[in-house]
Amino acid sequence: MTVLIVSFVRILSTLTMTIHFSGVRANIIEGLAGGKVDLPCNMTSTPVDDKPVLVLWYKDKVLIPVYTFDARTGPLWQGRHSSSDHLTGRAYLTTVDRPAKLIIEPLMLQDHGSYRCRVDFNRTRTRYTDSILKVIVLPSKPLIKDKRGDILESLIGPYNEGESLKITCEVTGGIPVPSVSWWRETILLDDTATRKRMGPVINELTIPILKRHHLMATFSCVASNNNISAHLSTVVTVDMNFRPLVVEIVRSSQPFSAESPAQVKCWTAGSRPPAVIEWFKGNRQLKTASSNVSSHGNVTVSLLAFIPTVTDDEKPLSCSAMNPLIPDSTLTDTQTLDVRYKPQLNIIMTSRPNSFTAKEGGDVTLNCNIKAKPAVTTVNWVLEDQDLYTNLSAGVFVRNHTVLLASVDRSQSGIYKCVATNTQGMGKSAPFNLRIQYAPRCKENQMLVFWNHKTQTRKSTL
User: Fold this and answer.
1) I need a surface site. Which of 2, 191, 279, 399 has the fewest CB within 10 A?
2) Is 144 exposed, middle or buried (0-12, 13-18, 19+ CB in 10 A)?
3) What is the pLDDT of residue 451?
4) Is the dihedral angle over the CA atoms 22, 26, 28, 34 positive or is it negative?
5) How many CB atoms lie under 10 A from the CB of residue 221?
6) Whether the Cβ atoms of residue 134 and residue 28 lie closer than 8 Å to each other
7) pTM for this structure?
């Protein structure tokens, strides 16, 4: 009878008590919605031969227990468990651990609040364990978007070197409101997120000028609203296009020879993807080049094969490298062609430049115009395939590029040529057929017949 009265008094005090936390240090417990949480309860008795007989769990300031463990009629392992409708099927008190634990799984948002575990013993005074349970609702996984609002994932781009990059991270939901930050690898870039009304938390990352070191840089948007779970993050990696940094024609100390096959090499580096190389001679594009790209893709080498001509001498030969994906990315190196060629000759008569004829008894000057690179070393004259030399008695004067024929006669008619040599070889002029005009005359050693009209006689002589 005494035991029943004591039990009734304890239950009555439970119904009428006011839960408070004054002077008691509460345990701060955090749990994830949908997860599992353990709320501690100190059920250790002093003295050790005493035992707990009744455990009552209260939430917030509600006077009715949300969970009850009753071992008044037997040992602990035979204690009776009961819970409120809210915790039915989700809560269980385990007395094996020290301290004992009220396990709630799965955790719901409405489980958030303050909890008190009251333990009554047979002889020892009642003991309380206070806890504050914070239920955390995880936010959504961050979404990264470009300036058009398109969702970005994994590898983004490629973006051109020198362009700006603006990407936005959006995170919705979460209790408490999450922080949203941008990181590059382990370096914090920006943690100034904003939120409008009940909308998503937004953080914008802007890189005014993309540089080469941004290639394959990983940018992470990290959302977090607790310290008990892994942060939520979305990572993007920036792909980029680079403009060429250098282009150079590999110059040779040896000049080119006209009409001989030649090769010129040009290389460029720094472009991504590999640069396109174009060749120009003057304003005319040359399409006889082949290109090779290095294994790492950074260097492109172009080999131009062409046959230089005499007219190519002093012309600019240009090698241009460009990344077609980047406007105004062309770099050009120019070399002035040095073309050597054998002498090119032609003969003119200085007194009558456009004529091949001269009058007997007059003076004739023939000039050999020479175009050669390098300069000629010898100049010779030929008349009817015979070398022509100075002959003062015949009125022939030969001097380098010029032949002077004084008081020419018809015996000096014929095919004249000038021949010159340099290190590239020998050149001959086109034949110059000099024709000497003279007055009519009789042939020598022929019969001449004269008729005298008055005397009607004929006289013949040899």
Assistant:
1) 2
2) buried
3) 59
4) negative
5) 26
6) yes
7) 0.72
